[in-house]
Write a structure and sequence with these properties.
Blueprint (H helix, E strand, L loop, with lengths): L3 H5 L2 E5 L4 H12 L3 E6 L2 H15 L3 E5 L7 H9 L6 E4 L14 H29 L2 E8 L10 H21 L4 E8 L5 H5 L15 H11 L5 E3 L2 H13 L2 H15 L5
Parallel strand pairs: 1-2, 1-4, 2-3, 4-5, 5-6, 6-7
The protein binds NADP nicotinamide-adenine-dinucleotide phosphate.
NADP nicotinamide-adenine-dinucleotide phosphate binds next to helix 2, strand 5 and helix 7.
């Protein structure tokens, strides 16, 4: 979808931009003419992406190295931005894990909560308020189908993604007539380096194929301003229709847990 820059403004900021979906958002937004602010922990891939986007699309690329698990991450970002205004914000970064809840240390679970829930809440409190003052802006929150029901062996991650969706939907209602478009994208499996590194096994011939990041981003741009949240991709929408509307909650939770167990060969 073109015209996002005319609608929302000059500068897009992508939290979690060094690879995969985050890099795809940054590229698509630069292609639309947005200057981009790229955030992640690893500086080298951010610098390489910023240079590429500056050369390909004649936009300005700014790099902010920040660990979004830091309690003062939003303050660090505000300081690095100075008086640069953010018109389009994508919160894409996440921490995940796969396995039994009790076999992952509590620090990791707390880190997941910080990066996936607390930091985005703090960022929206600041950048959302700035957009509201101007009555102009857009926010994309990356959620997940793992947050549509309990997801065994991804329990903490799934719960944070449920938070991301529900939080975003609430803000959509509060901000819908105030010039700020906010949307949660509930993605299914997407072929990012992170996902591919988990080495998932195919569990059935009916399993939806992983989407490519560029397709997720392209669809997101057609949905923003239209709906508070949506499921990415038609096969994922079909799978979620079965899980959420046809099956009982118990069946849906069992199916999700069984699929993860098979995909990753988890011993129960
Ligand atoms: N891939 C999938 O199958 C899938 C499915 C459903 C939903 N999603 C959602 O889509 C989003 C992207 O997920 P992905 O796993 O595919 O990742 P990705 O977009 O390929 O990469 C994750 C990005 O987040 C950054 N990041 C991670 N931890 C960070 C931290 N503590 N501080 C700063 N940056 C951090 C990483 O950079 P650094 O490592 O350099 O910090 C990287 O740039 C997530 O919100 C996820 O929940 C993905």
């Amino acid at each position: 979808m073109s015209g996002l820059k005319a609608k929302y403004g000059q500068t897009a900021m992508i939290a979690g931009a060094s690879e995969g979906l985050g890099a795809a958002y940054a590229t698509a937004l630069a292609k639309q003419g947005f200057d981009v602010v790229l955030i992640a922990r690893r500086v080298e891939p951010l610098k390489a992406l910023a240079a590429q986007l500056e050369s390909d699309y004649k936009v300005q690329g700014t790099v902010i190295a920040c660990d979004l698990a830091d309690k003062d991450a939003t303050e660090q970002i505000k300081l690095a931005l100075g008086d640069k205004q953010i018109d389009f914000l994508v919160y894409n970064a996440c921490v995940s894990y796969i396995g039994p809840f009790l076999e992952t240390d509590i620090e990791t679970h707390l880190r997941i909560a910080e990066v996936n829930m607390i930091t985005p809440m703090k960022m929206l409190y600041h950048f959302g308020a700035e957009m509201l003052k101007r009555r102009r802006g857009a926010i994309v929150m990356m959620a997940s189908m793992a947050g549509l029901q309990g997801s065994g062996y991804l329990s903490t991650y799934g719960a944070t993604k449920a938070f991301d969706r529900i939080f975003t939907e609430g803000l959509w209602y509060e901000w819908k007539n105030k010039g700020v478009d906010i949307i949660a994208c509930c993605a299914g499996a997407t072929a990012t380096p992170n996902y591919l590194n988990t080495n998932p096994k195919k569990t059935s011939m009916f399993e939806p194929k992983a989407q490519i990041p560029e397709d997720v981003v392209e669809e997101c741009f057609t949905k923003i301003g239209q709906t508070p949240s949506y499921i990415s991709g038609s096969s994922n929408r079909f799978a979620s229709f079965l899980m959420q509307k046809l099956f009982s909650r118990k069946t849906a939770v069992n199916m999700m847990g069984d699929t993860t167990t098979k995909m990753y060969g988890i011993k129960n």
